Amino acid sequence: MKNIVIIGGSKGIGNAILLQQLKNNIVYNISRNAPEITHANLKHFTVDVLQDALPEIEVIDTLIYCPGSINLKPIGSLSIEDFRNDFEINVIGAVKSIQKYLPVLKKGTNPSIILFSTVAAKLGMPFHASIATAKAGVEGLVKSLGAELASVVRINAIAPTITETSLSANILRNDRMKENMIERHPMKGYLKPEEVANMANFLISEDAKSISGQVFEMDYGIVTFKI
Ligand SMILES: NC(=O)c1ccc[n+]([C@@H]2O[C@H](COP(=O)([O-])OP(=O)(O)OC[C@H]3O[C@@H](n4cnc5c(N)ncnc54)[C@H](OP(=O)(O)O)[C@@H]3O)[C@@H](O)[C@H]2O)c1
């Protein structure tokens, strides 16, 4: 039984991870709202990761940081504040969580960290300047910390394409937009949060003990293929 800290398990990808992991592990969820589910293996802390102190947790094997943003605007409409906000929630929140829990995590079993990037960090897409910049920061963190913590703690990122969560609700707000999104991807699809949770499940497992410092594109081909 692992002790898993999820920052952002109340909804979206983090919630899909939480629901999978609860069956066999202790899950500590940290978010501003509680997850809908209650379970003997779940402990929730109502915390804003940017504003509040993070709770003390005594045993941790896995840390998963999910908060992120999709703030798509032309460069002329993006304020400096937009860039700062995207950097804060995507990078600084992750750094704060890692710094807080690393001493405990280092004593864990097969300890590892999962962060989230996006396909837009690799594939140039119009209007993604702010989020692509922030997620490039996440990918840099994964590379650097992967090396720094190499013999002790593994750290990897998942870089999903569009995933059906509340974060992307505006981009997938009607059937026509959903069909267009499927068509844009060479492998004809986009992600459900459970698919991303399956990847996280593998990356935190013993089967992934050789893997650190990597960014995994889950892209339905949009970064990888030109057809
Ligand atoms: N969805 C996509 O299409 C997509 C595509 C590429 C990359 N990603 C990345 O994947 C990750 C997960 O995305 P998602 O779609 O699952 O997002 P989501 O549905 O918005 O869920 C984000 C989670 O983070 C929590 N959270 C947000 N701000 C917080 C704060 N200040 N303090 C504490 N908790 C906070 C939210 O809970 P509360 O609101 O309860 O605090 C929620 O549980 C993000 O990093 C995102 O950038 C998503």
From TrEMBL:
Keyword rRNA-binding attributed? no
GO MF annotations for this entry?
oxidoreductase activity
Record-linked CDD domains = SDR_c
Keywords from the UniProt entry: Oxidoreductase
Q: Which family does it belong to?
A: Belongs to the short-chain dehydrogenases/reductases (SDR) family.
Which InterPro entries does the annotation name? NAD(P)-bd_dom_sf (IPR036291), SDR_DHRS6-like (IPR051122), SDR_fam (IPR002347)
Write down what this protein is called. Answer: NAD(P)-dependent dehydrogenase, short-chain alcohol dehydrogenase family
Q: Which domain of life is it from?
A: Bacteria
Database matches in Pfam families: adh_short_C2
Q: Which residues form a coiled coil?
A: none
Species source reads Flavobacterium xanthum
